[in-house]
Design goal:
This protein is of the alpha/beta class. Helix content is 40%, strand content 13%. The strands form 2 sheets. The protein has an 8-stranded parallel sheet. It starts with 11 loop residues before the first strand and ends with a helix.
């Protein structure tokens, strides 16, 4: 307390590249189901706020569309490794060619978890939409259209490679010039495996709690992963971030930045690019205020001592 917090500096870097504040857009699928401009609007919003957007492999806007819509933006590409390895390589080459700055490899999805709402609804992609990163009139593009249960689960089961191992991270590192961020780590042992496989960063993520029931909240898993990494790569967090104080806690516990998924979609559904920008503005303002009230004038001044787990107090009752 009693520090001059009249000015706060929220600037930071991820993978050596500048962002104005440590809140970025996580990869989520099929944005055009929320708004006609879909991922294009999200990319423009992120670029206007000078932060990062991660485009999903199974997006309804293509790599090329994002590069054209936000040419000055900081864009990363989320990658699923397909059974067709040549197709996977083509996706990576397109991302490299169009100025994407990192690959975010999702490692917690050898297959999709059981999403009962999707099954009940027999989820399918609307007829006017497709997976835009793939050629038209192929199952990779159109495969979520028809379904006996969940079209998305059937799509993943038929195309994603469930035999992946840590050697596949090494395989990816061998042929790409981009940093490889491993997304989906929740334990210290997996963090060590990721580093040994050459990961340039780790996203502590439980896939929005949509894969395996009962997994820990990412904020609870973060300290263990951060300690295991021991400064050897950057650590990020996604999942459960709804307020600026959530961001402050994650930064205090070791995250370099946080990535938001659902809040960005909420903003997109509300008002397209403007709605996403507003979500980012709210979180940025809340983080700035939380820093001021915690006596932090810059991201570097946010310390682990700011966060005490509730179990500490419960143990003293």
């Amino acid at each position: 307390m009693l520090r001059d917090v009249s000015e706060r500096n929220l600037h930071t870097t991820i993978q050596g590249l500048h962002i104005d504040f440590p809140i970025a857009i996580a990869p989520t699928a099929m944005h055009r189901m929320a708004h006609p401009e879909g991922e294009v609007a999200v990319a423009r919003a992120a670029a206007s706020m000078k932060t990062c957007m991660v485009l999903s492999t199974i997006a309804t806007s293509s790599i090329e569309e994002i590069a054209e819509a936000a040419p000055g933006g900081l864009n990363w590409f989320q990658l699923y490794i397909y059974r067709d390895r040549e197709l996977t390589k083509q996706l990576v080459r397109r991302a490299e060619r169009h100025g994407f700055k990192a690959l975010v490899l999702t490692v917690d999805t050898p297959m999709f978890g059981r999403r009962l709402a999707d099954t009940r609804n027999k989820f399918t992609l609307p007829p006017h939409l497709r997976m835009a990163n793939f050629d038209k009139l192929t199952f990779k593009s159109e495969g979520v259209k028809g379904s006996r249960e969940s079209g998305l689960n059937e799509y993943a089961a038929s195309l994603f490679d469930p035999s992946l191992t840590w050697n596949d991270v090494k395989w990816l590192k061998k042929f790409t010039v981009l940093p490889v961020i491993v997304k989906g780590v929740l334990t210290d042992s997996d963090a060590v495996h990721a580093i040994a496989s050459g990961a340039d960063g780790i996203v502590v993520s439980n896939h929005g709690a949509r894969q395996l029931d009962g997994v820990p909240a990412t904020i609870d898993a973060l300290p263990e992963v951060f300690e295991a990494v021991n400064g050897r790569c950057e650590v990020y967090l996604d999942g459960g971030v709804r307020t600026g104080t959530d961001v402050l806690k994650a930064l205090a516990l070791g995250a370099r930045a946080v990535f938001i998924g659902r809040p960005a979609i909420y903003g997109l559904a509300y008002k397209g690019q403007e709605g996403v920008q507003r979500v980012l503005e709210i979180l940025k303002d809340e983080l700035s205020l939380a820093m001021a009230l915690s006596g932090c004038r810059s991201i570097g001044e946010i310390q682990k001592s700011l966060v005490i787990h509730e179990s500490y107090y419960l143990s003293r009752l």
